[in-house]
C-alpha cells in the first residue's frame, strides 16, 4: 500500500488525504479544504509531530529476537528501541536478555516504555531496563502473547523462539519486519538497516490506521 503523509500547520496529520485520529488510530474523510497549509512529510516526521502533542503509548510495537544475541544484533536492537522510544511508542518484548535487553535499554534511554512479557512466574527475571514486567508462567507459549499484543513486529536476528513469534505474527495478520538475519520466511519485510526497519514499521502502523478507517462502523453509517 502506497501511503502519503501531510502535516498540517495545526499539527494534525493526513494519510492518503484522510485525517488521522491519533487517539483511536483510524483515519476519516477530511472536511473540504482541511488540508490547506499542510506539507508533505515522512511517516517518521508525522509521528514525531504527533508525539509532541498527543500520547502515543497505545501504539505497541513488538521487538523480538534471540536471548543470546551477537554484537551486531544487540546494537541494532538498541537503536531500534531508541528510535521507537523517542517517538513515544510502547515496545513489547520477551523481557529477558540478548535482543530483548538491548531493545529495552534503547527504549529506556529515550524515555519510552518497554513491557516485558516473561515466560516465568516472577518479575525478577526481567532485565533492568524493562518498565513493566508481566510474568505469565506460560513458558515459551508467551511468544503468542507478544505477537498478538503488538500492532507491528520487528525481528532482530533469529532463533527458534524468534521463528515462532514471526510465525504467530504473520498468522495474526501483523506486519513483520526482519533485520540482522531475522528468519527468512515468506511475508517478512526485509530491512537492511535500522532506519529502513523503522520506516517500514511506521508505514505499517499507518496502514493499520487506514484499514481501521475503512471498517469503522461509525464512518460507514455516516456516509
Automatic annotation (TrEMBL):
Pfam families: LDcluster4. InterPro entries: CHP00725, LDcluster4, LOG_family_nucleotidases. One of its GO terms (cellular component) is cytosol. NCBIfam families: TIGR00725 family protein. This is TIGR00725 family protein.
Amino acid at each position: 500500500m502506497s501511503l502519503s503523509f501531510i502535516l498540517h500547520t495545526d499539527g494534525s496529520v493526513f494519510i492518503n488525504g484522510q485525517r488521522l485520529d491519533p487517539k483511536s488510530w483510524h483515519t476519516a474523510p477530511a472536511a473540504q479544504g482541511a488540508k490547506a497549509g499542510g506539507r508533505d512529510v515522512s511517516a517518521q516526521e508525522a509521528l514525531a509531530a504527533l508525539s509532541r502533542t498527543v500520547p502515543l503509548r497505545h501504539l505497541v510495537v513488538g521487538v523480538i529476537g534471540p536471548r543470546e544475541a551477537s554484537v551486531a544484533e544487540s546494537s541494532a536492537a538498541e537503536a531500534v528501541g531508541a528510535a521507537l522510544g523517542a517517538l513515544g511508542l510502547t515496545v513489547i518484548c520477551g523481557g529477558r536478555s540478548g535482543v530483548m535487553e538491548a531493545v529495552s535499554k534503547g527504549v529506556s534511554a529515550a524515555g519510552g516504555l518497554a513491557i516485558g512479557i516473561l515466560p516465568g512466574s516472577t518479575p525478577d527475571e526481567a532485565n533492568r531496563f524493562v518498565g513493566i514486567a508481566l510474568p505469565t508462567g506460560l513458558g515459551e507459549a508467551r511468544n503468542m502473547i507478544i505477537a498478538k499484543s503488538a500492532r507491528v513486529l520487528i525481528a532482530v536476528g533469529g532463533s527458534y523462539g524468534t521463528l515462532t513469534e514471526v510465525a504467530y505474527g504473520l498468522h495474526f495478520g501483523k506486519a513483520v519486519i526482519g533485520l540482522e538475519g531475522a528468519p527468512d520466511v515468506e511475508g517478512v519485510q526485509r530491512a537492511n538497516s535500522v532506519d529502513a526497519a523503522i520506516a517500514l514499521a511506521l508505514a505499517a502502523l499507518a496502514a493499520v490506521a487506514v484499514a481501521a478507517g475503512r471498517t469503522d462502523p461509525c464512518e460507514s453509517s455516516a456516509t
